[in-house]
């Protein structure tokens, strides 16, 4: 039985490991707390704790920062995994964009760094932090007055400390990158690289709340037809090796217009953990199963075939700040993302216009049935949140 070390696991990670019964085939070890639940953390202490573990056969991290930490630990032990430099190439957006454009120029929107408060592109354009997570700090800019001030926020400062541990050339982490707007169906293609060979697992559709850029749900498998799926797979096989990734999971976010080439939004050097229950429900095999095999140097040999039915991950959000007075009782398969006693703006990981309350998933034989189940369950869960706005308390 092999030992796999998970760096700073979240509850989602532990639930996915249990759902796939990976504890029956691996000795699963964990170190550190979920970094997204901490105001700050010491990456050097995490690496030291990992180095103190006597032996393990593979190491994984499922978020941007922990994926980089896992790469650093794996490199130090001579274990399988992507190089820290290749993970950094993905996560530092200007670097990633330049490498993408070198091999697939037609699939990369025009991009420039934000400099000295001047409009870098004719508005409107999309602005995102040089390093970031979950759309935090990302926005559409329509006028110079909407440009943010430069500064090393807590996330970027934390990221810079991790990069320093890897003794890599360190680009700046305190800026923004401006990109031409893209349009079309947003999708995420997920797969892995093993010994240079790229395997595509599947593609998931991303759907926003009407009139916003806040994600409402993710539907697996995609609605796209075979020709478009083949186009995305071919694009991925160009871009992922150009970033230097090997022996790791990746996911590529894209915008697919009605006509014309797909446009890359970003490439992530990690598993898409939120989609693991969807793949498990539709294929009977978890992406975490493949992740563990890959971390130990094995070929995951993914050949799950066509998905069975449709699975949906639904995100319950509200668009006004409020004090959380109470939340629904825990139930299987639901991630409640807020806790009572704090305002929504004081907790959680959110985009610039909304606040996430909970995430859950449903699976059904048809897309329509899966969406109907999600809408009914979302309504019931939302009614269990008691939020207070301007001194008024109400169940939502």
Would you kindly provide a written description of the structure presented here, covering whatever features stand out?
The longest helix is centred in the middle third of the chain and has 17 residues, at 226-242. This protein has helices at 11-19, 43-52, 64-77, 84-91, 93-103, 154-165, 226-242, 276-283, 287-295, 367-382, and strands at 2-7, 26-31, 58-60, 111-113, 125-129, 139-141, 176-179, 185-194, 197-208, 215-220, 248-256, 263-268, 310-318, 323-326, 334-336, 355-364, 386-389, 392-395. Among the domains are: 103-179, no CATH class; 310-395, no CATH class. It is built from ten helices and 18 strands. It is an alpha+beta fold. The N and C termini lie far apart (48 Å). The relative contact order is 0.13. An eight-stranded antiparallel β-sheet has the order 12-11-8-9-10-13-16-15, with helices on both faces. Strands 4-7-5-6 form a four-stranded antiparallel β-sheet, with helices on one face. The protein has a three-stranded parallel β-sheet with strand order 2-1-3, with helices on both faces.
Task: Describe the structure in brief.
With 396 residues, the chain is an alpha+beta fold.
Largest sheet: number of strands, sense, barrel closure: 8 strands, antiparallel
Instruction: Give the SSE string.
Output: EHEHEHHHEEEHEEEEHEEHHEEEEHEE
Oligomer: single chain
Which range does the strand content fall in?
Answer: 25-35%
* Broad structural category: alpha+beta
Gap between N and C termini, in Å?
48 Å
Inertia-based shape: globular
What is the number of strand segments? Answer: 18
Portion of residues in helices? Answer: 25-40%
Please give the count of helices.
10
Pick out the low-confidence regions.
none
Overall pLDDT, averaged? Answer: 93
Strand order of the largest sheet: 12-11-8-9-10-13-16-15
**Nearest-angstrom radius of gyration?**
20 Å
